[in-house]
Design brief:
- It is a single chain.
- The chain is an alpha+beta fold and 537 residues long.
- The protein is 56% helix and 10% strand.
- It contains 16 helices and ten strands.
- The strands form two sheets. Strands 4-3-2-1-7-8-9-10 form an eight-stranded antiparallel sheet. Strands 5-6 form a two-stranded antiparallel sheet.
- It starts with a helix and ends in a 24-residue tail after the last helix.
Length: 537
Amino acid sequence: MKVRADILRTYQTLHTWTGITTSLLLFIGFFAGALVMFAPEIDRWATSPEKHMPAIAAERYDELLQKVLQAYPKVADSVTLHFDKSLSPVSWYEQGNGRGLALDEVKWHGTLNSDGELVTQLVPVNTLSAMLDMLHRTAGIIGEIDHHQAGIFVLGIAAFAYFIALVSGVIFLLPTLVKRFQALRRDGERKRFWLDGHNLLGIASLPFHIVIAMTITVFAYHDVFYGGLSQFYGDKPLFPGTEPSKIERKLADLPKVSELVAKVEAHAPGYAVSYIRYANLTKPAASASVGVVNEDQLMRGALNDYVFINPYTFEIASSSAAHPEQNIWAKIVSTFFSLHFGSYGGDLVRWAYFLMGLAGAGLFYSGNILWLEKRRNKGVQQSRSYKVMGALTVGVSLGALMGIAAVFASNKWLTLTPVNINHAYLFVYYISFFSVVISAFVYGPARTAIYGLKLLTLLCVIVPVTSFIAAVIPGTELWAPNSLESVLVEVVSLLFGLMFWLFSNHVARRAMENEPGSIWYLKEPAITSGIVFSTQR
């Protein structure tokens, strides 16, 4: 396919600048997002097994709920029954409500023992996966705009630019699309390898990236979109709700849990109930939010669909689960959410999204390296923009990896201290992140990358080593994995450690072989980055 040269240059320029201005934010979002695909498993790994209460048989949930409501009357305002055997059968918040990243939440966990007695314990909520999700949605940008995290809006703009970069990149590659897709040249100039690798990653995962770019933009600015639609709907609500009830409710009239489960499963055939969250049980506004799972369907939530139902009358207020009466708009919205969350197809799709998330981070990093390789001058003298972008590329990407790895490595050890572990997570992440960024500017990208990757390897190895210590030295109050999912968290950490060690050795070899002037060159006597912060030219 032939395209005029001036048009190609225009799209190449558009692709370059939209990519280079957003890539580092997207790197953090994609890497954290890949980990969030396994958020429940990460939270279970990060929390001592003793904090979870034993599961009970399905027919005992009525007895459990009644005993909880008798012992803790305030629970009628909000209580959740969990049918996932890896979670405590019942829980409710003593402090907080489980929405977003809250650092001081405390939660009651409960179950029934073999004698039918209610057993409860109060446990601070571990927000490790919520912190990762915050990084995924905001790239770690601090601050709020109108009670929303500022980073969400920034990442929304970055996602729009990222969409433009995708489209312009495809148009630019059109004349040589097939040839570029099949090429990965390791000989010749180094920038050829980065160019081929960047093209290969981008073309192979193009549908995934288009979906993610569009959904991030909509998630960030959905309130603005809904406001725009009001021009068509006028005073009519976009999502019509049911009339509020005025009937006073009594717990004595509450139907059995098993009846509610049967009603929901009849409404959404093929789904299994994962939890029931009761609210306002003694008020006219009594409701139940029911999480339902069907891995053969496109689910609206990251882990499940939702059915909102009156727990007394079983009248269904709304439902995102696939059912015969579901309208086309609800199906479109569910599809949109599901394609972003990867909430379909079970573990196979979750692992695929995990790998594509990592590949996406690699795509953005390779784009920056390609930009640097193209703008490196012959000789020692380099432009300030080249040096600054080199330091930012290594500092931000390696800093984010270091911060996340440091949080995982310190997790179990922090539980031995009196500190609030959720506050400690943020402190550990940001101190690690900014230390690496500063190092990249002061000591240069090559030195920071070599020693940073070795430290990163050590942090990854500490994760399984901590569990080994817990297993061989009882009484430390540390804990070893007690499920296959928790073991896999540590296996993946070990694999990351091996990969970072290999990267470190590669960068070290390259530093010895590179030409003077490259950000990867280390034979100069000075150990600084060479960036001079001066207004004089």
